[in-house]
Amino acid sequence: MSYIDELGTAAKKAASDMTTVGTKQKNAALEAIAESLAANKSDIIKENKRDIENAKVNGMSDAMIDRLTLTEARIDGMSEGVRQVMALKDPINEIIGGEELPNGLKVEKIRVPLGVIGIIFESRPNVTVDAASLCLKSGNVCILRGGSDAIYSNKCLVGIMRDALKRTGLPEDAVQLVADTSRAVAGDLMKADKYIDVLIPRGGGGLIRSVRQNATIPVIQTGEGNCHVYVDRFADIDMAVNITDNAKTQRPSVCNAIETVLVHKDVAEQFYTALNAKWGGKVKIYGDEICAKYMNVDRPATEEDYATEFNDYIISAKTVSGIDEAIEHINRYGTKHSECIVTINLDNAEKFRRCVDAAAVYVNASTRFTDGFEFGLGAEIGISTQKLHARGPMGLKELTTYKYLISGNGQIR
Amino acid sequence: MSYIDELGTAAKKAASDMTTVGTKQKNAALEAIAESLAANKSDIIKENKRDIENAKVNGMSDAMIDRLTLTEARIDGMSEGVRQVMALKDPINEIIGGEELPNGLKVEKIRVPLGVIGIIFESRPNVTVDAASLCLKSGNVCILRGGSDAIYSNKCLVGIMRDALKRTGLPEDAVQLVADTSRAVAGDLMKADKYIDVLIPRGGGGLIRSVRQNATIPVIQTGEGNCHVYVDRFADIDMAVNITDNAKTQRPSVCNAIETVLVHKDVAEQFYTALNAKWGGKVKIYGDEICAKYMNVDRPATEEDYATEFNDYIISAKTVSGIDEAIEHINRYGTKHSECIVTINLDNAEKFRRCVDAAAVYVNASTRFTDGFEFGLGAEIGISTQKLHARGPMGLKELTTYKYLISGNGQIR
Question: What global pTM score does this model have?
Fold first, then answer.
């Protein structure tokens, strides 16, 4: 039996046990996890230090080390996150449809857990607790595969969570960590369709592509965000500048920040001039000739730039002949995440909403709102950029499926 | 540009055009297809004869040739099927959620097409028209890859449909056939994630496994049905015999027929004796020792039998110690399709409903009801046995996704 077979078998068993666990018990387990995290800060920080020391030896950048580092305040934040998930409505066993058929059969459609969820992520250890608590609350079992950079932190966090599960009468195998972070085992995990119902990669484009190429398990792609603002001919220029500024610079590292601004030629002079005044060198600009007339352009934008998620204070700017060119550009280069038009023209707003293929399409608002909390869905496990199963922010409901329950008194066909 | 690149590029363009096509126009196209099929029967039958002649040369079985054969009556059936799809409610642009956020942003969640759907199927040419009409009505574009056995029939049918689309002002590339049925091109198709949003294999277990192993596109698995009836200690024996008989013999070749009956030891004598009297040799039985005492058993059932979809007048029978063993057996060998308990005990009914992991769980009714028409969903593109996106019968709604439309007046974060 391979290592993944062992984890998988235990996960299946735990998933089966979870089908009879109610909301009260799940909440008690989450409360125990939140308390244990707070009570074991020194242990967590000790183990986290081992990861940080290794990271320094391996020459990890300061920014990455910062993402890896756990402090007392960050651990409190993790506990707080668990309690937020606890406070969300339990989606399981909700009746989402049903009727009595002419032959007397009663059909109910009820919400049930997906089962076993595999989550592959990079070095941020807070994902470990976030993902596990969302899976638990939605009745799912998770197999977590974090990066080797965070292995000591993750082992410690998962140990604390498993202990809390055990103490509150839940199957401890409902949360499992892939302790062997070798590539071979990651490969086995992606092909463990016998045990795992869904695989969610959380990380950069490279990780997502690798999982999509190698997995035989259904995958939900999350988090790639090549997003755009289109400044229409009928835009309020002040609004367009504010939205572009916010969508680019309020937090450039996140997936719902924009990477390209598309500008209608008739308002190019006005818009570029105003944006240049606002930014004054704060953002590096890759722009075309028209843009270069009014802004301090670093160099011309290339095809590759249009396809790049900079995640930084960098933007591509392109002047377009009209809304059709803008939509075509977005549907060609975008990652189906979040797209915005600034316009006061109803027809153009409607056309953009209908023709742009993305999870979230905005009229006159910043793309930065695509987020589980902002949409009122609560904590999210990621933002889906695929169309199958769930699109946009994935909260608890998006971690469920349904089953049909049919009751009869001897009906046959 | 490869062949699949060509089809894919045309499909993306058509999918974009389909975003502005309304219900009336889609229905007009479907009506034109229904009429054209009826008007071109002799052409269709002529092309179908070429497939049949090839099939005979290749030594295809009579049963398979029958499935391949199109007659006037069967073509009328296809037209009728298209009109049934036409009569279904258009799911597109339905508002399925939404609210106004505290910051004044209006969020709407609306139903939209998946986009481009790839369908890989075996030799039944009626699937070509069924699948295309369901995709059209739900605003999707389809790329159909049928078997080489039906290539002349499929070319003729797709030609008729494309012509009808053109005449009614829809993009003819909304329905495309992969005319090159080589394995290499099928391989390219499964990796065309640049163009195709979802891949649906329709056929046997081998086809489905191959698609799941090779595809980089999200796949919906359909149609594998290793289903069970469990006769509980508290079963009405007459009802149990009737349900077992119906679920096994009413149409053994379909996916919602059962393959194994599980019998509580305390009612084994009564049930097996009554079933033996009912069947008297009509069904071949692979049973254990207890079963063999009361039925004419062909040979003992093996582990392999439990995992086999016979699709024939063959059944495995296993005597179990109780409901837990029955549930364990089903969750181990079943394909998550349709499962039934016969019981009058409320606790056991509830336990079975909750713990059995399947798309459709029955209490006291035949598994044969798992079907789009029976459930009132209308025509189906298949019965999903996976948990992601859709479970059980997949009708028009299950061929859609959603997008969030957010309207503001300059909101930023």
Answer: 0.93
